[in-house]
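Work Package 3 (structural annotation) set out to generate three-dimensional models for the target panel prioritized at the project kickoff. During this period the team completed the workflow that converts sequence records into discrete structure tokens, so that structures can be stored uniformly alongside our sequence database. As a representative example, we reproduce one entry of 122 residues exactly as it appears in the project archive.
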Amino acid sequence: QVQLVESGGGLVQPGGSLRLSCAASGFTFNNYYMYWVRQAPGKGLEWVSEITPVGGASASAVSVKGRFTISRDNAKNTLYLQMNRLNSDDTAMYYCARDCRRQRALWHCDYQGQGTQVTVSS
């Protein structure tokens, strides 16, 4: 079965950096677009970034563009999110996900991991 296991979250000061990782198993990783999504307390799922199956192209939300970089290592079945210049608005649970789509104003993903918490605070 599809398994996605995130790691790398934590408490960081404003302006700091974190690198999230997601270990994928149970499917042919390099056949799929992969996503990072996040959910802040009391809010819906927010699309953060996505990357093509072979990693040749990616897209990111305006709110993180220029600060976050998504990447993947298909040999290791691993997805990454490098997050720089973090601010309090980035505080959320971050999920690695597959098969995501936007329906009206909300994002839905068929598969996502258990999440890793990112807290930006001084």
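DSSP finds no helices and eleven strands in the chain.
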